[in-house]
Specification:
This protein has 632 residues and is of the alpha/beta class. Among the domains are: 2-120, no CATH class; 141-445, Rossmann fold (3-Layer(aba) Sandwich), CATH 3.40.50.200. It is built from 23 helices and 19 strands. Strands 6, 7, 8, 9, 10, 11, 12 and 13 form an 8-stranded mixed beta sheet that branches. It has a 5-stranded mixed beta sheet with strand order 1-5-2-4-3, with helices on both faces. Helix 7 (193-202) runs parallel beside helix 11 (388-405) and helix 8 (239-251) packs parallel to helix 9 (277-287). The longest helix is centred in the middle third of the chain and has 18 residues, at 388-405. The termini are far apart.
Length: 632
């Protein structure tokens, strides 16, 4: 697992920090303001992390026009020095006196000045008392105590199939960006859900480290996040896209040491897991050694409301409880909106419950969620949300801690450890509401699952993809024009017939993920597409000359077999079934849902202070009921 540390060498970390300026560029001087835009042309934005900087500081400077040349001139005019050109973000890496940062931001053409946070926070330490006030869920789950023993998730890859993870300070330098399957052509999380999940799992509190009351950290603050973006600004995604994302995770498990998959996603399908494609996919990843952590759903308190693939007997299904923001467990209650079992096939679910109400984590600037729920924002760059999505992300972070402590444990053993050390809530709370109880990672790490192995996964995956959708559909344009098509029946988002037997029978390894077929022309700029991605321009003189030289950049970890060999461009992907330009265009992202009355596939119950009127907990301020002047 130590090899994971080599995934993001110093220069790559600088690039990650540089791309972050895209997200920061549209904010105002008040980071808590919602509805921001992505471009601004008056005065360059200065990263909030530079507010108290002293002496010479390492920064990334990006330009609105003129690229590297404009940024270079701005740095020189501000008594700074340029270290490296960064044409990929139209800017440079530089050192500038802190006293001249304001001068730099006002230089013509400067878009943003961003702190090189990887260097700044490399010595950040974590202990059990770091987040007693900031992130109560770190305390109540035992994560803080695990940190005291050195378990912070370091070296563990956690895949997040969601709406993307924007390159925010709390995860800077620790995100591996997989393919953008949303068709938007950007790594930015425009919907805002996935960034929150990433922060809950692995945020290090960098943007709130000096904040009174403690930093808002995640559970595994040194874990590596592997982001696979599957939905754009409307949050709409088809089942076939999720299946493709899971196929990618399978193919790149070894390269990024992916040991955990967070799936804060669900559909209201009741198709039998023994044939369902989603259940087949999560079971296949489980057998491959990945702990798949899945949200139970937000359709409680009624019984039988577990969403798919949380209905699968194999995976770890997570419900939500309210820890009341107190360290004591005596006042904990199951959130009324947390879905209950049994499943349609009579399986008791969820397996465990985790804190899922009023969870604060990093936000994605200008996203749909923060524009719709501005009252949920917390300065400087955080947002509050509730749902089994949040509870699932908490649990994924806990699994990363367990994996670091016991790297040889199987998914079955980890599930056993979490279930058998969980603490039941007080009172008469059924197993179909709380599973085995509240997660306790300290006890789980100290447990002994022996050689435990649960019943082997058995799904064939040959059921109906339409039934797997549970009545939820996206609308797309199959011909790239103005004619829209509902993706339904046995058809995938490429507007092609779904062939379950071909998908389940393939090795999930193949050559489709090279060149422009990976994400299309809109990846992150033309320099990244086509032959420049996998050919000589990537590992040859264009990248190894002059400023880019040095062991960490040219070493075998970057240009050797692990990056450009068979694992990356060889026969190891998904086969011809997943190729074709239809996967990479923007038209199929789903401009609308064709049904209503459901929370949506990315499971979050509510954001901010006002919950929907039908989901408010006792004593909670709720939104108005339709047709009524006030909440009932």
């Amino acid at each position: 697992m130590e090899a994971t540390k080599q995934l993001l060498p110093r220069k790559t970390a600088i690039l990650a920090a540089a791309v972050m300026t895209t997200a920061l560029a549209g904010t105002t001087s008040s980071p808590a303001q919602a509805g921001t835009t992505w471009e601004r042309s008056v005065v360059g934005i200065v990263d909030s992390g530079l507010a108290h900087a002293k002496g010479a500081v390492h920064v990334i400077v990006t330009a609105t026009t003129g690229g590297v040349g404009t940024a270079t001139r701005a740095v020189t005019a501000s008594h700074g020095s340029v270290h490296a050109p960064l044409p990929i973000v139209d800017g440079v890496a530089a050192t500038v006196p802190a006293s001249d940062l304001g001068v730099l931001a006002r230089q013509p053409g400067v878009k943003a000045v961003t702190l090189d946070r990887v260097a700044h926070f490399s010595g950040y330490s974590f202990d059990g008392g770091t987040t007693v006030s900031g992130s109560n869920f770190v305390t109540t789950t035992g994560a803080g105590q695990a940190w005291q023993h050195g378990y912070t998730g370091q070296g563990v890859g956690v895949a997040v199939i969601d709406t993307g993870i924007s390159p925010m300070p709390d995860v800077a330098g620790r995100v591996v960006y997989g393919p953008d399957l949303s068709g938007e052509g950007t790594l930015v999380d425009t919907y805002g859900h996935g960034t929150v999940m990433g922060g809950i799992i692995a945020g290090n509190g960098a943007d709130s480290v000096n904040q009174a009351g403690g930093a808002y950290t995640g559970v595994a603050p040194r874990a590596t996040l592997v982001s696979v973006k599957t939905a754009g600004a409307n949050g709409a995604v088809d089942v076939s896209t999720i299946l493709q994302a899971m196929t990618w995770v399978s193919a790149y498990q070894s390269q990024f040491n992916i040991r955990v998959l967070n799936l804060s996603f669900g559909t209201p399908s009741t198709q039998d897991p023994s044939v369902d494609p989603l259940d087949y996919a999560v079971e296949r990843l489980w057998k491959q050694g990945i702990v798949v952590v899945v949200a139970a759903g937000n359709s409680g308190p009624n019984a039988g409301t577990i969403t798919k693939p949380g209905d699968d007997p194999t995976v770890l299904t997570v419900g939500a409880y309210d820890d009341k923001q107190t360290p004591s467990g005596g006042d904990d209650v199951i959130a009324s909106w947390s879905s209950r079992g049994q499943t349609a096939q009579g399986v008791t679910k969820p397996d465990v419950v985790a804190p899922g109400r009023y969870i604060i984590a990093q936000r994605s600037y200008g996203s749909t969620i923060e524009q719709q729920f501005p009252n949920a924002l917390f300065a400087p760059s955080y947002i509050r949300g509730s749902g089994t999505s949040e509870a699932t992300a908490v649990t994924s972070g806990l699994v990363a801690l367990i994996v670091q402590a016991h790297p040889n444990w199987t998914p079955d053993q980890i599930k056993w450890a979490l279930r058998h050390t969980a603490q039941p809530l007080s009172g008469q709370v059924s197993a179909n509401s709380q599973g085995q109880g509240r997660v306790n990672v300290g006890a789980a790490i100290g447990s002994n699952p022996g050689s435990y192995a649960q019943q082997p996964p058995s799904s064939s995956g040959l059921g109906s993809i339409e039934n797997s959708r549970g009545g939820q559909h996206v609308v797309t344009s199959c011909d790239g024009g103005n004619t829209t098509t509902v993706i339904q029946n046995e058809m995938d988002v490429r507007c092609e017939a779904w062939d379950g037997s071909a998908w389940t029978g393939s090795a999930w390894t193949g050559s489709a993920w090279t060149g422009s077929a990976w994400t299309g022309s809109a990846w992150t700029g033309s320099a990244w597409t086509g032959s420049a991605w996998t050919g000589a321009a990537w590992t040859g003189s264009a990248w190894t000359g002059g400023t880019w030289t040095g062991g960490s950049w040219q070493g075998s970890a970057w240009t050797g077999s692990a990056w450009t060999g068979s694992a990356w461009t060889g026969s190891a992907w998904t086969g011809s079934a997943w190729t074709g330009s239809a996967w990479t265009g923007s038209a199929w992202t789903g401009s609308a849902w064709t049904s209503s009355g459901y929370d949506g596939d990315f499971l979050t119950a509510f954001w901010g202070n006002h919950t929907p009127w039908w989901k408010g907990l006792p004593g909670e301020v709720r939104g108005p009921r339709p047709g009524f002047a006030q909440s009932p």
